[in-house]
Amino acid sequence: MSLKEMALKQDPSCTTNSLSNYLWSDAPDENKWADCVHCGMCLESCPTYELTGQEQHSPRGRVHLIKSVAEGKLEVNEQFMDPVFACLDCRACTTACPADVDVGGLIEEARGQIRQAMPLTGWKGSVSKLFLQGIFPHQNRLNSMGSLLKFYQKSGMQKVVRKTKLINVMPQHLVEMEAIMPEIKEPLRKKYKNEKVIKAKGETKNEVSLLTGCVMDVMFSDINESTVNVLTRNGNDVSIPQNQTCCGALHVHAGDRETGRKLAKQNMEAFKDSDKVITNAAGCGCALKEYPELFREDPEWHEKAEEFSAKVEDISKYIHDTGYEKPKAELNTRITYHDACHLAHGQGVRQEPRDILLDIPGVEMVHMPNADRCCGSAGIYNITNPEMAGDVLESKMQNVPDDVEMISMGNPGCMLQMAMGVEKYGRNQKIVHTIQLLDWAYQKEDQLKGGE
Amino acid sequence: MASKQIKTNDKHVKNLANIVGGSRSILYHKEDLLAYDSDGFTLHRHLPKAVVFPKDTQEVAKLVKYCSDNQLPFLARGAGTGLSGGAIPMNGEVIISMVRMKRLLSVNLENRRAVVEPGFVNLKLTNSISDKGYYYAPDPSSQYCCTIGGNVAENAGGAHCLKYGVTTNHILGLEVVLPNGEIIEIGENGIPDAPGYDLLGLITGSEGTLGIVTKITVRILKNPEAKQTVLAYFDNVTDGSQAVSDIISAGIVPAALEMMDKTAIEGVEAAAFPVGHPKDIEAVLLIEVDGISAGIAEQINQILEVCNNRNVREVKVAQDELERGRWWANRKTGFGAMGAISADYLVQDGVIPRSKLPQVLNRINQISEEAGLRIANIFHAGDGNLHPLVLFDARIPGESEKALAAGSACLQACADVGGTITGEHGVGIEKREEMRFVFTDEEINAQTDIREVFNPNNLLNAGKLFPMPGRCVEIKKELKEKEAAIS
């Protein structure tokens, strides 16, 4: 045996499952990390590596740690949790990786193990439990929270709280969030409670169903409204299945895969008669498309999930591919476009929203450098990791061109985060959803026609 | 992520943390250190003692002095994309990570030079000056994320080094922290070919064994006026290799002249950046010419003619920048793409005289068959720099050993035809023993004598670059430690 061969002998060269420190089912998938050859092409794509320069906060570092637990070299503990939970789940590494390693999937699987090994405690635990289990899955509670917020805004209480500095008792990052809370309107699902189908204007070409989303429907119901307008105007009958629920993305990101599966099953059931499921929230769309990943160990549901996820499409891609009426009214505005991570990296939708925006007369598009860099919203990351999220946001805002009036994007989480950035850094851009701009152009066109 | 207390009784860790300003700039928990147990060469893994993140030259000098005074082995690391193990802490080193020193300090277009900190990423330099019509020529395939400091240490090459030369041809000045903590500047003012010994040439490519580079003055170039890229498919490797020789013999100096064989094509097409290469093709050439506009068309015609004379199946010129970009992304992510068809790979880096290409490629085929392992070839054909990628699965007992032996045999094949064992990836840990293929003991001793001058205690990146006489003892010791740790 040569010296070299001897040197090699000392390195454990095989993975034995019996060594694994993952104790629960649904453990990180060996086949996913087997694709990683540690080349490092992911490093620069990763916002947390960019900020820290530390490789345990890089995609290949995280993959290596996740693999090391399976090989019995590491325990599932606090120190392992830190890098795994500091990941923004932005999936930029998936785009950068030459070998298509599913880092996002591995991270979420690892989080599932961590949460079972070390349930959350303290205020983070309570907050996350309240939101993830107490509120998001329950539409009526979300709506009542929406009503509360509406009351908070309309009653003048918001003013009182802000004026009397009562707001100062909240942690800083929550204060910043309160400052940009959008005005609450009536949720779409409530509005169309009794309508089975919202008919297309003119001839029906397609039938689609809409996932209204939880945050979207409460905080941004006008975007849902715009989505329905754009769909019906372009020949789509739209149904809004009433028993649909939260997509589960936030639960899966947080490691609560069990609730994720429960919600996934409910949604698959709710949309079982639909041929096309349209989403206007990139995070939800990506989660729905990744349902099969949740059922790796359950062949029956896995097959259903495969079928279901094939039906899911983002509104911008759907409209772009099936054809839409070019608006004729001019909007006369300078805008820039931010790629939501779960749209660009998660679903590969990059050009379609830009094409739609450029089709609106009078819209001038200014390029945003690193447009597909995460803004730091990342689900509820900005609530759980405020410091890192703030740093990521700062670097994002530096890339927003000075002379634009609006920033367009396709995800409500990003919209809240970017609105916070605008507020925090004294900018004055309006944050809009791509589909809203298209709808506004249509509405303006109709008004002009009406006025003739 | 919040700043935490340093929780350890290790006085060295505490003292190092003090030098770099606290817990945010040091890693010492096993969980974090594991991410640093290898670089792009994964066959050896060792934990560092700690990883520190200095923010400037002064901190580097203090860290180095501390390590030197306390006899702690240490080494510098950039992005850790090296392919020969140069940044692996095989002696439990303190890793001095340079990635937070990542500023572009100045750009001087008039004199065509830029000054960067070592952690500055290679491609970012070109991106920062491209709008003014300039670029930085050395372009290793990992340029998206590798650091210029690492490029200097390894004397990195790249696809376009055929015409423009490797890193050493683009370095005008360096600030270096010597292993005793002293800070020196060489090549001051960036004047090329200064009198006296060529210290820049000595430090560049010294694989981090002579000092730690903390500031780099590089040459930048004006973008070529015109650029054309050709893709040519061949039904057999010999025709492809002959076409390479013919192009050079015709007096053309392409900016790049790259080749991939069938297995490599299978990999890149299965991975993230496929461009639709035919699956049944034996070799693809990627040829780029650049320079002043006049004459480019003529060169392209010559290249097309050469390819046709060598029975090319299909040859095409990139229609636009988008197509050109896709071809290059496909080629440049080639190593990582092997992950799509193999669990692990080992890349070799031999150099041969161009005329020996068909012969050596045949030999590599033989080696592959003998080892029972697939070998993909992605290489800079123009300068005879081969990159055989030995595909294996480390989970199968015995395969790692076979892969290493096959890789070594490939290098032997290169040395046998008058070539050498590395073109751009460096020797590191990986090719230490193979240094004996090309150097006698006396020649190796002469080189370690030079190291003694700079690095007398051999605390800085020990065990790299040269075969070590004392290695056997070292291995036994490590083996014992491992056994003790397991039991």
From TrEMBL, chain A:
Gene Ontology MF terms: 4 iron, 4 sulfur cluster binding; glycolate dehydrogenase activity; metal ion binding
**Keywords (A to Z) from UniProt:** 4Fe-4S, Electron transport, Iron, Iron-sulfur, Metal-binding, Repeat, Transport
Q: Does the keyword Methyltransferase apply?
A: no
Question: What is this protein's record name?
Answer: Glycolate oxidase iron-sulfur subunit
Known catalytic reactions: glycolate + A = glyoxylate + AH2; (R)-lactate + A = pyruvate + AH2
Asked if the keyword Iron-sulfur belongs to this entry, the reply reads yes
Q: Bound how, and how many: what does the cofactor note say?
A: Binds 2 [4Fe-4S] clusters.
Identify the cofactor(s): [4Fe-4S] cluster
This enzyme's EC code(s): 1.1.99.14
The 4Fe-4S ferredoxin-type domain sits at 26-56, 77-101
Described purpose of this protein according to its UniProt entry: Component of a complex that catalyzes the oxidation of glycolate to glyoxylate.
The protein's organism comes out as Peribacillus cavernae
* InterPro entries in alphabetical order: 4Fe4S_Fe-S-bd, 4Fe4S_Fe_S_CS, Cys_rich_dom, Glc_ox_4Fe-4S, Helical_ferredxn
UniProtKB/TrEMBL annotation, chain B:
Keywords on this record? FAD, Flavoprotein, Oxidoreductase
Per its UniProt record, the required cofactor names are: FAD
Q: Which GO terms describe its molecular function?
A: FAD binding; oxidoreductase activity
User: InterPro entries under this entry?
Assistant: FAD-bd_oxidored_4_C, FAD-bd_PCMH, FAD-bd_PCMH-like_sf, FAD-bd_PCMH_sub2, FAD-linked_Oxase-like_C, FAD-linked_OxidoTrans_Type4, Oxid_FAD_bind_N, Vanillyl_alc_oxidase_C-sub2
Q: Where is the FAD-binding PCMH-type domain?
A: 44-223
Identify the PANTHER family for this entry: GLYCOLATE OXIDASE SUBUNIT GLCD
Q: What is this protein called?
A: FAD-binding protein
Its source organism is Peribacillus cavernae
Its lineage reads:
Bacteria, Bacillati, Bacillota, Bacilli, Bacillales
